């Protein structure tokens, strides 16, 4: 998910995406421990996207 895509999201869409990404991150951590993860960089990418969405959510509440 790119910055331009995040800017276009509504508050409810951001919350839905956050929930989905948190579940994905949880599953990726288990796959990493078991050695099943095919793309280890996916963990860091997911964390960064979650941070971007949280930032956008916080900025939209303050505005």
DSSP helical segment count: 3
Distance between the termini: 23 Å
Number of domains: 1
Helix % is over 70%
**Low-confidence runs of at least 5 consecutive residues:** none
CATH topological fold name: Helix Hairpins
The fraction of residues in strands falls at under 5%
Derived structural class: mainly alpha
CATH C-level category? Mainly Alpha
Fold and architecture overview:
The protein is mostly helical and 63 residues long. The chain has one domain (3-32, 39-62): Helix Hairpins. It is built from 3 helices and no strands. It has helices spanning 3-7, 11-34, 41-62. α2 packs antiparallel against α3. The model has no long low-confidence stretch (mean pLDDT 91).
What's this entry about, in short?
This protein has 63 residues and is mostly helical.
Secondary-structure blueprint:
Elements: H1 3-7, H2 11-34, H3 41-62
Helix pairs in contact: 2-3
